[in-house]
TrEMBL record:
CDD domains: CBS_pair_SF (cd02205). Residues 24-82 form the CBS domain. It comes from the Bacteria. This is CBS domain-containing protein. SUPFAM superfamilies: CBS-domain pair. InterPro entries: CBS_dom, CBS_dom_sf, Diverse_CBS-Domain. The keyword Protein biosynthesis does not apply. Residues 1-13 have a biased composition (Polar residues).
């Protein structure tokens, strides 16, 4: 599995000791869980990304939603334009910490069959996402 690295790193970083913080994408959109599905799909299209980090009103990461999940919610027979992201989040799924070794983060992604993994700090905020390169 190859992870995306979008932020340049210092040349002194040793690949053997890489952590999730070394490889996470910090530029992706974070949205509030009271956002509607249609608005979230629009944000995702504008950002040209396949996932959104979802946070609560306190800025704490509550999960990650993919385009496939949002599309499935929109296409369901129970869909209304008032459905918010918190209504479809369900289980928050796996997270990793910035200090987690890359080998462990990759194992978590393989085990959970996740294409993206939120990186959450000790305060519950998400400084970035690890994503599989496509």
């Amino acid at each position: 599995m190859t992870l995306v690295q979008t932020q340049p790193r210092q040349a002194s970083a040793t690949p053997v000791h890489r952590t999730a913080a070394d490889a996470m994408d910090t530029g992706g959109p974070q949205v509030c869980d009271d956002m509607t599905v249609e608005v979230a799909l629009s944000v995702m299209a504008s950002a040209r990304t396949g996932h959104l980090l979802v946070c609560d009103n306190d800025g704490l990461c509550t999960g990650l939603l993919t385009q496939a999940q949002l599309t499935a919610a929109r296409d369901s027979s129970a869909y209304t334009d008032r459905i918010q992201l918190r209504d479809i989040l369900g289980d928050p799924g796996p997270f990793t910490r910035p200090v987690t070794p890359m080998a462990e983060a990759e194992h978590t992604m393989r085990h959970s069959q996740a294409d993206a993994l939120p990186v959450v700090d000790e305060h519950g905020s998400a400084p970035g996402v690890l994503a599989v390169a496509r």
